[in-house]
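Project standup — Tuesday

K.O.: blocked on the structure for the chain from last sprint. Re-posting the sequence here as requested.
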Amino acid sequence: MLASSLAFIDGSVTNVALPAIGKNLGGTAGDLSWAINAYLLPLSALLLIGGALGDHYGRRRMLVIGVALFTAASIGCALSPSLAAFLAFRALQGIGAALLMPNSLGILGSAFEGEARGRAVGTWAAAGAIASAIGPPLGGWLIDVVGWRSIFYLNVPVAVSAIVIFMRFVAETDRGQDVLDWRGAVLATGGLGALTWTLTAWSTRHDVTAAMAAGATAGIAFMVLFVLNERRLQDKAMMPLVLFGSKAFVGLTVLTFLLYGALGGLLMLLPYLLIVGSGYSPTQAGLALLPFSIVVGLASRLAGRTTEAIGPRWPLTIGPIVTGVGFALLVQADPQASYWTSVLPGMAIIAFGMAGAVAPLTTAVLASVDERHTGTASGFNSAISRTGGLIATSLAGAVISRTGDDLIGAFQTGAVISAACAAAAGITAWFTLGGTEKSA
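H.V.: unblocked you, prediction finished:
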C-alpha cells in the first residue's frame, strides 16, 4: 500500500501543480501536458515487463528497485533547473512506477485467496484513495507556502518507510523457473513506447509529421511481432495469449481502458479549470478533489467484500454507469458559479460510482488468472488503465490551451465524452462478466 501510494500521491499532486510548474519553468500549454505524459509514457510502455520481471525474479525485489528509482527521480524533479530536466526525471519516475505498481498487486494476489483477497484488495484500493485524498490539499498548501518543488519531497518519507517494511516483513515470492521472454519484453516495450510517443507528440501539434507516421508504423509492427512471438512461445510467453481466451479477461481489459481513460482526463482538467478559469489557489483546487478520494477510500473495502460474495458482474456494471451519470452532471460545471452547486454534485456521484468499481475490478483481474501470472495480469491491466489515462491526457492538451469561455466549453465537451466512455464500460461488464473464471 505504501509503494502504490507513491504513484497515487504523485499523480494527484502533479495535476494541481501544473499551472505553477508552467509559470516557473516556462513552456506552452502543450508543454504542460508533457509534464503528465512524460510520466505516463514509460509507465504505459513498461508495466507489462515490470510485472513479468516480478514473476520471474521475485516481486519484492522488483518492488524495492522500483520504489528506490521512483524516489531518486522525485528528488531530481524537485531539483530540476529547467523544463527539459524536469521532464527527464518525470520519465524516470514512470520507469520506477512501472516496476512497483504491478508487483504491489502481484504480492497481494499471491498472498491471499478467496474472500480474504477481496478484503486485501479493497484495503489496498482504500489506501490508494486516501493517499490521493491527502495529496491534492497537502500539495496545494505546499505549493502556496513553499513552492511546487516541495511536493516531490513528499515521496521520500513514504518510500523509506516502504522499503524498511518490505525488507523486514514481506517474504520474497517464488521465482519463475522458465527463461524470461526477453524478445517479447523488447517487442512489447518498443511497440507500446512508439505508439504512446506518437499519440503524445500528435496531441501537442495536432498534425501528422513524418516522424509521427514512422513512430505509428513502428509501433504497430512491433506489436504484431509481439503477438506472433507470444503465440510461438505459448505458456512460456511473457503475456500468454491463452489469457485472452477468457471473455471475462477481455471484458475487464476493455472496461479498464474506457473507465480509467474517462477518469484520467477529469482529474487533470478539473483542477486546471478551477485554477485558471476561476482563480482558485492550488490549495483550494486540491480540496475540490477531496470528496472523490474520501468516498472511494471509505467504500472500497466494502466493495471488495461484496464482490467476493456476489461476483464482479453487478458492481462492475452499476459502478461505471453511475460514474457516467456523474460525468454528465459536470457538463454544468462553471468556474464562475458556486462549487457546491456546479462541481460537487457531479464529483460526489463519480466518487460513489468509482468506489463500486475500483476494488471489484482489481479483484476480478487477479481472480481471472492462474497464480503464476498474477503479476503479468496486474501489469497488463495497469498498463491498459495508464494507456487510457495517457490518451485522455494527450487529448486534454487541446483543452488546456483554451482560455475563457472556450476553456469552459472544451471542458464540458470532455465531460460528455467521459460520460459516454464510463457508460460503455458498464455495458461491457454486463455482457462479458459472469462468475469468476480462471483463464490460465
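K.O.: great, moving the ticket to review. DSSP finds 17 helices and no strands in the chain. Residues 2-180+238-432 form a domain with the Growth Hormone; Chain: A; fold (CATH 1.20.1250.20).
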